[in-house]
Amino acid sequence: MRNDSSFIELRARQRALALLDAGSARELLDPFAGVMSPWLPQQGIVPQADDGMVVMKGSRHGKPTVVVAIEGTFQGGSMGEVSGAKMAAALELAAEDNRNGIPTQAILCLETGGVRLQEANLGLAAIADIHAAIVDLRRYTPVIGIVAGTVGCFGGMSIAAALCSYLIVTREARLGLNGPQVIEQEAGIAEYDSRDRPFIWSMTGGEIRYQSGLVDALVGDGVNAVQTAVDAAIAQGVPAQHRSENYAFYLDRLTRFDTQQQASTAVIHQVFAPEVKK
Asked: Residue 273 in 3-state DSSP?
């Protein structure tokens, strides 16, 4: 794989391999293990042998590393019981490694629309386990999140992204609690037109999220650019204060927002001005 090739165009398994030292990767519960959702066939949906979740253990620059990558092309990267359990368990085992003196790093490739509606509460419970596992692991080592595209990161998994020690995005990425179609359905097209792509990216795209201080690095769509950003994040070590712990700052900014006006890029800049990156 060339380092200047597109990271966005890679499938989950290829992304994981790109982030680990050559020859070091070993996939856990790979498709041949046959661990897949028992619920999708009951609803007439063809399951996938890895349930859309790739977990690889290996090394990055010789240091033990686990990469968890969501396959956005399967059910929109949605999280079900099995896929969520795979991610949560990988993070929990990484935390256990650190407690046992094995400094294992974690990198998450997040391409997901959130919970899998067909699995409802089972998926939500798995996402809650993922949140808890990230908070546990990030005490020992930076948990690096990557949102590249094309699915974006929404729903409960956007909270997982926010809990990461550092978050890396491309301009093509999108990050938000609710997806455009959900907002349009609940608030109306006048509030949020999900077909207006420039508007959508101006609100939830990687560039505005970076300028708002909600992510830590904005990179080009290249394998080398993503690898470099990951290494820079790891080199910073565990943050003195994680973004999710700085709730007083964000609550203060949100109280200043006038919900009677239509949100825009200019308004977002105004609300988060003190944190805008130059």
From this structure: helix
User: What are 77-120's pLDDT values in tens digits?
Assistant: 999 999 999 999 999 999 999 999 999 999 999 999 999 989 98
Tell me the DSSP string of 52-113. Answer: TEEEEEEEETTEEEEEEEE-TTSGGG-B-HHHHHHHHHHHHHHHHHHHTT---EEEEE--B-
Question: In this structure, is residue 263 part of a structural domain?
Answer: no
pLDDT in tens, 34-86: 999 999 999 999 999 999 999 999 999 999 999 999 999 999 999 999 999 99
Residues with Cβ within 8 Å of 241's Cβ and at least 6 positions away in sequence, in order, are none
Domain presence at residue 189: no
Examine residue 131 and state whether it is found in any structural domain, yes or no.
yes
The answer to whether the beta carbons of residues 109 and 168 sit under 8 Å apart is no
- Whether 144 has a pLDDT exceeding 60, the answer reads yes
> CA–CA separation, 69 vs 92, rounded Å?
16
Residue 36 in contact with residue 47, Cβ under 8 Å?
A: yes
Backbone angles phi, psi at 27, to 5 degrees: -85, 135
What CATH number has the domain bearing residue 130?
Answer: 3.90.226.10
pLDDT tens-digit series, residues 187-196: 888 888 889 9
Report whether pLDDT(212) > 60: yes
Tell me the residue range of the domain where 227 lies.
12-175+215-245
For the chain, the domain total comes to: 1
CA-CA-CA-CA torsion for 19, 25, 27, 32, nearest 10 degrees? 120
Domain assignment present for 33: yes
